[in-house]
Amino acid sequence: MSEIPPKDPAPAEDADSEPRPGRVRKPIGWSTIIIAILVAVSAVLVWRRDGADGVLDILTHDLSLFGGILPRVLAGCLLGAFISEILPHEKVSRSLGPKSGLMGLLIGTAFGAILPGGPFTAYPVASALLAVGADFGATIAMVVSWTLIGYGRAVAWEIPIMGTDFTLWRIVISLPLPVLAGALGRFVYVRLYPKPLAKEDEN
């Protein structure tokens, strides 16, 4: 009988790729339990003060609010899923990955500044970028830039209420902050999740 040819060994992971922490998200964690306890305590306090009618009034209002928010959450999650499938992993990793350096932080900052929409858009997009090769630093720069510099809120709310001079100076002063936050996030991430040594380096 002829010998069965040995199987080719599985290709080793690229040592240069950024390791991802193998953390599985649980549907119920400590944060969910704490929030549930706070909700139960608050409901009891409202029931003792206003009776069952007060509790039902709050529940009715919250269900109406939840019904209005749910389509936005669904749309944001779908947007993040589609973006993670559409974006080319190699280009994202090269432009926003751990080796992108200062340019990656600047790209993340610029992208966050022009990203439209609210949190239902920004956070799914940030999650999608992480999934396709962006590192923590560039993604942090994007989120901080969207929070501080985002043009949508500046045009719709800040300029009409606070004036053009205030808005422009606030944006100019905020410009370095996303880059600094991204650099700090990249520095901390590398030390929390150090890259495994390649086999040739161990020998």
From TrEMBL:
Compartments it resides in: Cell membrane
Cite the InterPro entries for this sequence. Answer: DUF318
- TM annotation in the entry: 28-47, 59-83, 103-122, 129-149, 169-189
The record's principal subcellular location, in a coarse class, is: membrane
Q: Mind listing the UniProt keywords for this protein, alphabetically?
A: Cell membrane, Membrane, Transmembrane, Transmembrane helix
Q: What is this protein called?
A: Permease
List the residue ranges of the region (Disordered): 1-23
Membrane topology (UniProt): Multi-pass membrane protein
Q: Belongs to which family? A: Belongs to the UPF0718 family.
